[in-house]
Amino acid sequence: MASSKIPYYPLKNKQSLDVLLDAIGDARFVLLGEASHGTSEYYTWRTTISRRLITEKNFNFISVEGDWPDCYLVNRFVKGYPEAGNSVRDVLKNFTRWPTWMWGNWEVAALVEWLREHNQNEAPEHKAGFYGLDVYSLWDSLEQIVKYLEHNDGTTVEAAKRAFRCFEPFGDDPQAYAEAIAFVDKGCENEVLEMLQKISANAPQFSGDREANFGAEQNALVAVNAEKYYRAMIRGGGSSWNVRDRHMMETLNRLMDFHGPESKAIIWEHNTHIGDARATDMARSGMVNIGQLVREEHGSENAFLVGFGSYWGTVMAGRQWGATMQKMEVPRAKPNSWEARLHEAGPGDKLLLTEELRDLPELQKPVGHRAIGVVYNPEFEAFGNYVPSRITERYNAFLFIDETEAVHPLHNYRDAHQPPELYPWGT
Question: Which UniProt keywords apply (predicted)?
Answer without folding.
Answer: Methyltransferase, Transferase
